[in-house]
Structure formats: structure tokens, C-alpha cells
TrEMBL record:
It is a multi-pass membrane protein. GO terms for cellular component: plasma membrane. It comes from the Bacteria. This is DoxX family protein. It comes from Aeromonas media. Its main location: membrane. The chain crosses the membrane at residues 21-40, 60-83, 90-107, 127-145. It is found in: Cell membrane. InterPro entries: DoxX, DoxX-like_oxidoreductase. Keywords: Cell membrane, Membrane, Transmembrane, Transmembrane helix. Belongs to the DoxX family. It holds the Pfam family DoxX.
Amino acid sequence: MTSIIARSLSTQVGRYFLPLTLIRISFGLFFFASGLNKLIQPDNQQAMLHTMIEAGLPYPAFMATFVAGNEALFGFLLVLGLLSRLSASVLLVINIVALMTIGIHQIPADVTGLEWYSWLLYLPESVYILLCILISVQGSGPWGLDRRLGRLLPATGR
């Protein structure tokens, strides 16, 4: 079990750490701010509730608070570089659901092929999904708390 935890906290150290760190922190701040605003701003709460209803999700009031809370929490953890892979994975699920329930319906019905693909990549959720995958694979980078925590765990046959 310790080995699994140690692997999830491990991160690559190399010349790409600065871009990864900038992506992780800016992406985390974006989701932290977005989720927090959906939790505390009445207009944003209503917009989030409307989005959940429009998406056809069950228990829309609960889901609006739950999703916004997860965006804020896991965005904050990304800023710290703490549990980065888990945080990015949770945000990945949120964005896949957002893309499949709301975003994809913004693509005109009469487009196909490369035009459809182009429309897909214009959707912000598509970019968020790609960034979540990047962080899920790469981890926090050397300037995250994951790396420090990983050092505290006993080395077990790595």
C-alpha cells in the first residue's frame, strides 16, 4: 500500500518543471476561484443551479454545491501541489461530465469531421480535460507538496 501511495506522490524532476508548475498553479487557481465564486456569489449560485438543471443531472441543488465545492477544494490542492494526481483526476471527471452534458451541445449539428473536431477544441472543457490529463500523468512537479510528502515515505523497492 505504501508503494502505491509513494508512486502517486512521485514526480519527475527535470527541465520541464517550470511550465508544469505554472500550469498546475494557474489551473488550480482558476478552479479554486471558479468553485469558490459558485459557492459564495448568489448570481453564480443561481447560474450553477441553472446549469445543473439544464444538464438534467439528478438533485441539481445538491450537485451544484457539490461540484462547486470540489472545484474549489481540488483547485486549491493543485495550487499547493498536494494530491495533485487525485485532484486533477477529480477535475477531469467534472470536466468530462460538463463537456458531455452541456459543452458538446454547443457544436452545431450539421458539422462533421475536422470541422466538428475544431469546434470541440474551441470548448474550454476540452482544454481543461487535456490539462487534467497532463497533471494526472506528470504529478505536481518538483515544487509541489507531493514531492516533499513522497520523500517522507519509506523507500520500498522502487
